[in-house]
Amino acid sequence: MTKQHKEKELYDVIYAVIQAVGMTVTIKQDHSGINMSYNFIGDYVGFDAKRLIEARNELKLPISLEVYVKTMTLHELGHAMDRDALQASLPRTIEIYTMKKQYSLKEIYRQEHLLTMMLEEHEMNIQFEQTAWDNARALNHKHQFVSETDFDNIMQHSLATYKTLYEQDVQAYHHLLNQQVVQLA
Predict the structure, then answer these.
(1) From residue 41, how far is each of 25, 36, 38, 45 by CA, in Å?
(2) pTM of the predicted structure, to 2 decimals
């Protein structure tokens, strides 16, 4: 199967899900290295065909590419349903983004107030991800695109990435606080 044929096939699956749920979100193919994303500013779902295939292959349980793409499309539509909240978070997201550009990772992990901002970003991301998955579950329940088992496996795999990064930074934060206590003693 040619690359263009596979990309068209994935586009068609995404388009069919969007049409079936009655939403009007644009689809854009990109080469971002991110399997799928929702851009709340431009109100579109982006997908990287190559990364979608790779991400599906990272799942522990065998799930068809079509089921994976349908599930991830529902997830991105779940973000679209939460667009107002995403837009409301933009000023704080810009502040955190600006901070991350101004300081090296080494500096961020050595300063409590900067690391606290990183934790806040993780917490916001996890909340947005969970809300998107809750919305996706409601869409799937209504339209029966994929089995609940497949949905749950894909959701858990997706959320694990965000939670793992958060937990690593929580540990770094506690380590930083412990260093400060030792220095004060």
Answers:
(1) 12, 15, 9, 11
(2) 0.93
